[in-house]
Amino acid sequence: MTNAGSGDVGVAFVLSGGGSLGAIQVGMVQALYERAIAPDTIAAASAGALNGAFLASRPATSATADRLAEVWSDLDTGDVFPFNPLTAFLGAVGCRDHLVSSRKLRSLIEEWIELDDFGDARIPLHVIATDLLNGDELRLSSGPVTSAVLASAALPGVFPLVRRDGRVLVDGGVTNNTPLSHAIALGARKIYVLPTGYTCALDKPPRGALGVALQSLNVLIQQRLVVDIERVPTSIELVVLPPLCPLDVVPVDLSRSEELIRRSREQSRQFLDNLPDERHVVPELMRRAVHPHADARRG
Q1: What CA–CA distance (Å, rounded) separates 119 from 108?
Q2: pTM of the predicted model, to two decimals?
Q3: How far apart are CA 80 and CA 60, in angstroms?
Q4: 160 preceded by cis ω (within 30°)?
Q5: Per-residue 3-state assignment (H helix, E strand, C coil) for 28-70
Q6: Distance between CA 148 and CA 115 in Å, rounded?
Q7: Helix (H/G/I), strand (E/B), else coil: 83
């Protein structure tokens, strides 16, 4: 169920989760593929697992990135989070383990991803899930792809639990939303991190329980990413693409995917064309989070 081995895999893409903010990664991929920057392996979690599996099943070309942009642009919120009052009520009173059916999400995975088994991937793929019963962080690298991606994206309490190989699995973002550590363990010499960021410009809380839950989770995992960046060995080249900020789109709103893709593509193009000659390249927004007192020390 996990791939414990390591080797020299060259370039890795690490794709984080973030619900509908996964659209931001699409613009990043467009900019990377335009510059012939392609992964030798992909490590991903949650919404990133959806994008990662799509990329792993197709050639690393601009046409693939553009097709992924078309898919995201055609989605609306109900395509991923279909609200059904009865399902929500049964989940709320404890008769079911979820508030939203994963039927539409499964259909999207089966439609998007031209890949049945991990072994058939054009680019080696590793997705992260969490064992709900014991808290294990799992790297899924073999067997059926659909159930693995569905498990990696199974936000606890929102989507149904996924049972696979005798385990009960939920969202990989619970234990490792941006699986940098797995890319390192797999032997990556250079890592491109594609974060979704978080809604950093709200003037009021999101509407609804789901919106509040996802926003809270994204703030938490943003802080975890900052810590993980600090832990990357200096022997590994690291490029963290900049997330969008200001950003006022909550992680359950799919109505603005086209805008997010466009903004991210433009920002990523500029960022990649002006990379400094450093082994660890972290955008200024995140650099301030990693070293919050740096400006004070210089002053």
Answers
A1: 21
A2: 0.85
A3: 26
A4: no
A5: HHHHHHHCCCCCCEEEEECHHHHHHHHHHCCCCCHHHHHHHHH
A6: 12
A7: coil
